[in-house]
Design a protein that fits this description.
Layout lengths: L1 H5 L2 H29 L6 H17 L1 H10 L2 H26 L3 H25 L9 H30 L1 H19 L21 H14 L1 H28 L10 H28 L2 H21 L3 H29 L5 H30 L1 H13 L2 H4 L21
Helix pairs in contact: 2-3, 2-6, 2-7, 2-8, 3-6, 4-6, 4-9, 4-14, 5-6, 5-8, 6-14, 7-8, 7-11, 7-13, 9-10, 9-14, 10-12, 10-14, 10-15, 11-13, 12-13, 12-15, 14-15
C-alpha cells in the first residue's frame, strides 16, 4: 500500500533498498581500506595508492561499462558485479586475516571493487527510468541520491573506522556481506531489462569502439546534454580545487580559521546536510522553478561558498554557505540526471551516462592539482576568488540551456524494456 501511494512501485523500492545496502558498503570501504593500509606501511604514497586503485577504473573502464550496460540485461549485470564485490572483499578478509599479506592485496581488492562500481553505479541510473513513470523520475532520483549521501558520508564512514578498530576481518567482511545483500535484493525485481536497439536488432553487430563512439557523439551532438556536461564538469573542477586546499586555510593554529580537525569535520558536515535536503526536496523545487534558474542558483551559491572565507572568518557563516551550496548542487544534480534519462534513447543511455560520468568525474583530480598549483602562484585567497568568478561565469552557460518538458501524463515508463 505504501508503495502504491508513493507512485514509485515496489520494483523501484527494491532497487532503492539494494542501492542503499551497496552505498553503505561503499562508505565503509572508502574509509576502511586506507586505514588497513596503514597497518602495512607508513609511506603516504603507498597509502594514497589504495584510493587511486579504487578510482582508476572510472577513467580506464568507465566508457566500456556503458557499452556493456547497453548490450546486456542491466539488472542481471548489476546482480553479478555487486556479488563479485562481496566475494572480492570476503576473499581479502580471509587472506589478510589468516595468512597475512602485503599492501598489494589491498590494491587488488580496491581495483576489483572500483571496476564493479563503474558498472553498478552507472547501471543504477540507467535502470531507474524502466521502473518508474516519467512523472516520478525526479522524485526517484532524489531518493536515490539522498540515500547515497546519508549512508556513505554519515553512516558508512564512521562505521568503517569502527569496524577497522574491531578487526580487519570485520572491516572487509561486513561491506562484502552488504554487497551480497544488494545482489539478492536485485534478484526480486521482475522482468527483462535489456535495452532495445533502435534498429530492432537487424543491423550487424558493432565493435565496442564503435559503440563507445556512438555514445560520445550523442553526448556532444545533443545541445542540452553537451551544455549540462560542461556545466557539471566546471562545477566539479572548481569544487575539487577549493576543497583540495581549503583544509590548509581552515585547520591549525596558524590557519586563518584556526579550526581543530573535529571542528573542520563539523563544518563540512554542513555540505552533506544540505545535499541530503536538496535531493529530498529537488522534485518540488524543480516543478516550481525554471530549470535554468535552478542551475544558475547552484552556480551562484557555489561561488558564494568559495568567496565567503575571504569575506569572513566566522566558521558558522562559512558552514551555512557551504550547506546552501550543497543544497543547490544536489537539486541541480537531480535535474541533470532526470534530463539525461528523459532525452536519451534507452538503447544508448548506458553509453551516454558513462561518457558523462567520465567527463565529470575526470575533472576531480585535475581540479585538485590545479588548486595546489595555483596556491603557490597566486595565494590561497586569490584562488578562492578566481574559483568564485569561474563558478559565476557558468550562468552564461545555463542561460543557453533549453530543458525539454520532463513531465507527461500516463503511466508508461520512458525506458523501452522488453517485458
Amino acid at each position: 500500500m505504501a508503495a502504491r501511494r508513493s507512485g514509485l512501485g515496489w520494483r523501484f523500492h527494491t532497487l532503492w533498498a539494494a542501492t542503499a545496502s551497496a552505498n553503505l558498503a561503499d562508505g565503509v570501504v572508502l574509509v576502511a581500506l586506507p586505514l588497513i593500509a596503514l597497518r602495512f606501511t607508513n609511506e603516504p604514497a603507498l597509502v594514497a595508492g589504495v584510493r587511486v586503485a579504487g578510482t582508476l577504473p572510472w577513467l580506464v573502464f568507465g566508457l566500456f561499462a556503458g557499452v556493456i550496460l547497453d548490450r546486456l540485461d542491466r539488472r542481471k549485470l548489476m546482480v553479478g558485479v555487486t556479488s563479485l564485490r562481496g566475494l572480492a572483499l570476503g576473499a581479502a578478509a580471509v587472506v589478510v586475516t589468516f595468512f597475512g599479506t602485503d599492501i598489494v592485496i589491498l590494491y587488488a581488492t580496491a581495483l576489483a571493487v572500483g571496476t564493479a562500481s563503474t558498472l553498478y553505479d552507472t547501471g543504477t541510473q540507467t535502470l531507474v527510468p524502466g521502473l518508474v513513470t516519467q512523472d516520478d523520475l525526479m522524485r526517484a532520483n532524489g531518493r536515490v541520491m539522498s540515500t547515497q549521501v546519508v549512508l556513505m558520508e554519515f553512516v558508512g564512514s564512521p562505521l568503517g573506522g569502527a569496524l577497522v578498530a574491531v578487526s580487519t576481518f570485520a572491516a572487509l567482511g561486513a561491506p562484502g556481506l552488504m554487497y551480497v545483500i544488494a545482489g539478492l535484493l536485485l534478484l526480486r525485481i521482475s522482468g527483462q531489462h535489456r535495452a532495445q536497439s533502435t534498429d530492432g536488432g537487424k543491423a550487424p553487430p558493432r565493435s565496442v569502439l564503435a559503440d563507445i563512439k556512438t555514445g560520445l557523439v550523442e553526448l556532444v551532438r545533443e545541445p542540452t546534454l553537451r551544455r549540462l556536461a560542461v556545466y557539471a564538469s566546471v562545477l566539479n573542477l572548481t569544487e575539487s580545487a577549493f576543497m583540495s586546499v581549503f583544509v590548509i586555510y581552515a585547520v591549525g593554529r596558524t590557519a586563518p580559521l584556526r579550526l581543530s580537525e573535529a571542528d573542520y569535520g563539523l563544518l563540512l558536515a554542513g555540505a552533506a546536510v544540505g545535499s541530503v535536503a536538496g535531493a529530498i526536496l529537488a522534485a518540488r523545487l524543480i516543478a516550481a522553478l525554471l530549470p535554468a534558474l535552478v542551475l544558475s542558483a547552484a552556480a551562484v551559491l557555489l561561488a558564494g561558498s568559495f568567496a565567503l572565507p575571504v569575506a569572513t572568518s566566522s566558521p558558522v557563516v562559512i558552514g551555512v554557505g557551504i550547506g546552501l551550496a550543497g543544497f543547490a548542487i544536489a537539486v541541480a544534480n537531480v535535474l541533470m540526471v532526470t534530463v539525461r534519462q528523459s532525452v536519451v534513447a534507452t538503447g544508448i543511455l548506458g553509453r551516454v551516462t558513462a561518457g558523462t560520468r567520465l567527463l565529470v568525474f575526470g575533472t576531480i583530480p585535475f581540479g585538485a592539482a590545479f588548486g595546489g598549483l595555483m596556491v603557490k602562484l597566486i595565494g590561497i585567497e586569490r584562488l578562492f576568488l578566481t574559483l568564485a568568478i569561474a563558478a559565476v561565469g557558468l550562468v552564461a552557460v545555463t542561460a543557453t540551456i533549453r530543458i525539454p518538458a520532463l513531465r507527461q501524463s500516463g503511466t508508461t515508463p520512458p525506458g523501452h524494456y522488453r517485458s
